[in-house]
Every structure is written in C-alpha cells, then in structure tokens.
Write a structure and sequence with these properties.
Largest sheet: 2 strands, antiparallel
Number of helices: 3
Number of domains: 1
CATH topology: YggX-like
Helix content: 40-55%
Strand order of the largest sheet: 1-2
C-alpha cells in the first residue's frame, strides 16, 4: 500500500515550501486561501496565537462579533502585517 503524497505549499507565513494542510480548516474564501497558502506548521502557530487572543480578550467563538475579530486577526496573521499580541500580554515563563 502506498502512502498518500504529502501536499506541499509555498507557505506565506514561513516564506518557504512546507507541508500543506490535509483539509481546509476554515470555511469560505479565506479558508480556501489558507488551504492554498498556509502550511501545517504555520496553522499550528495561528492556533496558539488564537488561543492567546481568546483567553486574554475573553472571546467566545459563539459570539459573531468575536468570530469576526478572530477572522480579521487570522487574515492579518497570515496575509497582512501580522496579528499583534493583546495589550499587556506577558508570555508565561
């Protein structure tokens, strides 16, 4: 039995060829853009950053305003100037 071919992408976040996501991780046009241009490694970085944003800002994924904020930050994280850490955030030691 042959292994499925690893899908490679030119990752916009890492600036190099890297293993792509297995499936789209987000719906719609943004999700397709991420699927085509973001590596698994960069997606994991976003997941960590998103967790920080949600915890520090007390966001709920069921709140449409919070989801819109996270989507904007996700777009900036991958395709814009980058998503900033929440004001006053201190990384755990």
């Amino acid at each position: 039995m042959t292994q499925p071919q690893t899908r490679m992408v030119q990752c916009v976040k890492l600036g190099k060829q890297a293993e792509g996501l297995d499936n789209p991780t987000y719906p719609g046009e943004l999700g397709q853009k991420i699927f085509n241009n973001v590596s698994k490694e960069a997606w994991q970085q976003w997941m960590g950053h998103q967790t920080i944003l949600m915890n520090e800002n007390r966001l709920s994924p069921i709140n449409p305003e919070h989801r819109a904020f996270l989507e904007t930050e996700m777009e900036k994280f991958f395709f814009g100037e980058g998503s900033e850490m929440p004001e006053g955030y201190v990384a755990p030691e």
